Amino acid sequence: MAKTPSGKTSGRGQRDLRVRVKTAKGRKLSSTLWLERQLNDPYVQRARKEGYRGRAAYKILELDDKFRFLVPGARVVDLGCAPGGWCQVAVERVNALGQKSGKKVGTVLGVDLQEVEPIAGAEIHQLDFLSDDADEKVKEWLGGKADVVMSDMAAASSGHKGTDHLRIVALCEAAAYFAFDVLEEGGTFVAKVLAGGAENELQALLKRAFTKVANVKPPASRADSSEKFVVATGFRGVPEEDAADDSVSGLL
Ligand SMILES: C[S@@+](CC[C@H](N)C(=O)[O-])C[C@H]1O[C@@H](n2cnc3c(N)ncnc32)[C@H](O)[C@@H]1O
């Protein structure tokens, strides 16, 4: 019998528990490695077991465990929501299906460039949030302003790290301006960014518009990824100097 690192005996050695994927004709090494990582990822396995559409669901669960913005009754906008893990979590937490008796019933509205399989309790629209009037449409669908705007969006990878970094910061800045248009006073903005240096302006912008800005890497975010999340709480309104800034649009 093999011994685990803690000294306990087990039927199989720890190393043997990892699923190995053999290279196959016609499959690139990068695809084989991706498949192997997916099969061995505990969050992937947990998502399958718990019915979430992807491991990303645990990132918003962990962020909400820490900051508690998905409260029953909250109106939530999820930008770039496909395949829908974040929406699933939001539906449960804001009580969008009214299953928590005696608690307020919330609303979840997701938008994405791609089509999304329906999610019970969420309203989903195929929409580029950068398109003209996207903010007006969202407010119309929502029937008013939102308490939470969250974004897990990523721009399509160019293969060049520096370019990708600038693009995701630009996307995040655009999401922040979108949030300024649809958030209720006191609201929360959550967005994915990549650590890498170009995000200082974004941080400064958020600090002017919100009472608190935190940068967090939830445990579900892979340690080898430079992704992190900003959680900005207590929306104060758009600072005047930022009201008409559209300098990010050229990067997208
Ligand atoms: C990482 S996925 C989101 C995963 C999601 N949080 C979940 O839990 O399933 C990022 C999504 O952002 C979307 N996206 C990127 N740019 C967008 C845009 N301009 N408007 C709407 N969606 C966008 C992509 O289509 C993609 O589906």
Automatic annotation (TrEMBL):
The active site is at residue 192. Keywords: Cytoplasm, Methyltransferase, rRNA processing, S-adenosyl-L-methionine, Transferase. The keyword S-adenosyl-L-methionine applies. The keyword Methyltransferase applies. InterPro entries: RNA_methyltr_RlmE, RNA_MeTrfase_FtsJ_dom, rRNA-MeTfrase_E, SAM-dependent_MTases_sf. It is found in: Cytoplasm. GO terms for biological process: methylation. It catalyses: uridine(2552) in 23S rRNA + S-adenosyl-L-methionine = 2'-O-methyluridine(2552) in 23S rRNA + S-adenosyl-L-homocysteine + H(+). GO terms for molecular function: methyltransferase activity. S-adenosyl-L-methionine binds at residues 84, 86, 112, 128, 152. It holds the Pfam family FtsJ. Residues 52-235 form the Ribosomal RNA methyltransferase FtsJ domain. Its EC number is 2.1.1.166. Its main location: cytoplasm. Belongs to the class I-like SAM-binding methyltransferase superfamily. RNA methyltransferase RlmE family. Specifically methylates the uridine in position 2552 of 23S rRNA at the 2'-O position of the ribose in the fully assembled 50S ribosomal subunit. This is Ribosomal RNA large subunit methyltransferase E.
